[in-house]
Amino acid sequence: MNRGLFAKTFRETWPTALLVGLGMLAFKxxxxxxAPQIAGQMGASMLQMDFVxxxxxxxxxxxxxxxxxxxSFGAFAWVHPVILALLWAQEIxxxxxxxxxxxxRGTVDVLLGLPVSRWQLYVCDSLMWLFWGAAIIAVGWVGDxxxxxxxxxGFRPPASKVVPIVVNLYCVYVAVGxxxxxxxxxSDRRGRAIAVVFGIVVGSFALSFLAQxxxxxxxxxxxxxxxxxxxxxxxxxxxxxxxxxxxxxxxxGVCWVIGGLVFARRDIRTV
Amino acid sequence: MNPxxxxxxxxxxxxxxxxxxxxxxxxAGSVYGFLGPxxxxxxTTIRVxxxxxxxxxGRARVLGRDCWKExxxxxxxxxxxxxxxxxxxxxTGRSGLRLLGGIRRRDLKEPGGRLLERFGLPAxxxxxDMSRGMRQKLGLILCLAHDPLxxxxxxxxxxxxPLVQQSLFAELRERAARGNTVFFSSHNLAEVxxxxxxxxxxxxxxxxxxxxxRELRERAGREIVIRxxxxxxxxxxxxxxxxxxxxxxxxxxxxxxxxxxxxxxxxAAEQPVEDMSIxxxxxxxxxxxxxxxxxxxx
Lengths: 271, 298
What we know:
The structure holds two protein chains of two kinds. By secondary structure, chain A is mainly α. Chain A is built from twelve helices and no strands. In chain A, helix 1 runs parallel beside helix 7 (118-149), helix 4 packs antiparallel against helix 9 (190-210) and helix 7 packs antiparallel against helix 8. The two termini of chain A are 30 Å apart. Chain B is of the alpha/beta class. Chain B has helices at residues 42-49, 71-75, 93-104, 109-119, 132-144, 162-177, 189-195, 213-219, 261-269, 283-291, and strands spanning 4-13, 16-26, 31-35, 57-62, 65-66, 78-81, 150-154, 181-186, 198-203, 206-212, 222-227, 243-248, 252-257, 275-281. Chain B has a six-stranded mixed sheet, sandwiched between helices. In chain B, strands 2-1-4-5 form a four-stranded antiparallel sheet. A four-stranded antiparallel sheet of chain B has the order 12-13-11-14, covered by helices on one side. In chain B, strand 7 (150-154), helix 6 and strand 8 (181-186) form a beta-alpha-beta unit. In chain B, helix 3 (93-104) runs antiparallel to helix 4 and helix 4 (109-119) packs antiparallel against helix 5. Chain B is elongated, with a radius of gyration of 23 Å. The chains are: A mainly alpha, B alpha/beta. At the A-B interface, helix 1 of A face helix 2, strand 6, helix 3 and helix 5 of B.
């Protein structure tokens, strides 16, 4: 790998990653602190009311079962729209930098005038994307732990249950990023690439939301990425969601490889 | 081995022709002018040579290697300045040299410093704060700093002031004298005439002419003004074939020379000519003819 390329990518991406990381830390701390308190105030009987259950199902994007304990409220901190929006904003802006962003601003001519292959550029940027994703999600976990310290015993999920959620979220990150790399490779305009990927993830989020109320949406919910990310289910079942993680990783990986092949073979036109 | 060898190169954009059946050979140590009006196919050719575009047909080799399959290896020895140069807004002269040095795995500090000084560019001004001319200078410095065997410059003098242009030409001549090759794309005849040894002219994606600048000059017409003594009526003197008389008064002829200079000198020596002035080669007119399409629209 080329250290100069890493230095360039790092130079261009650290400010966004830092901002998103700080935002993630703040929101996760807050959510991890607030969610169990709300659960404590609601009481078990309220949780059995239909309209409350429906609201919770929609927010969590998954079936909540017959019983929901206060610790399961910790799942809110992992599916909250702000958390997902922060993560997706960071990776969509990152993954559309190359080639769409570089072609769009014309700097790709300088970059590809250097003795590096297109695959080298693609892999180098991708490794940095995976690194930032891991760092941001890890920071979110730190925030979750910090917020959890303030909660009473029994109101916070144990770390052994949170680890599969963290890994599952990273798989979502891989899936969305892989898709963004593919769309970026097919595009000459960064704005268009961002709009397409953002549209798909928002659509996926909306589908996951609707599937809790509406039969037709439920029948096709498997096409949405968030169908394969259900923190509440992980907290309640205490098992690793291997199948979901595999689907997300394979989807992201396939998109990434196709994106690389497209980028390596396409014409680069900036004029 | 010629640094650039192009055989029957063709590039289509859908149904539109970028270049068609292009053949070129650029020899080592030459400064090769690549002329043509906008849309002639100059930039397309350059982008194919650099592996940015994939040719639809034909073959192009740069420094003996296939320009698509071996593009990264080629670019280790090539310096490229794009026609529409865009640099990273955060970049400065110093950070740009450090960055490119890191990617090229070479120390560009010393040669880059010399070029910064030669072109009078401050090392620590960011691109976002630079004028267009300063950006162009930085682009040139970044493509010259690693002392490439082959320089591919796409309209490099745009937005450079005349003094910097002269510095650039001096730099390019020095490099050509050391055996490096310069491929110089332009639509400005004067600079190609001043700098280049050979020239290729493109129009509509096809090669129109390819020869040395000296040969072109010889073929180009010149304006000749012949003054006859007052006692001689110039209208009575027979006009030789190699002169095209544009104005013919009793004691002054204004003509175009359409032949070798020695014919004119030989003929004039036998005539009672009082004075004769010979203008520079009319390359502009000649190029204008090449630039014009068959339907007369340029």
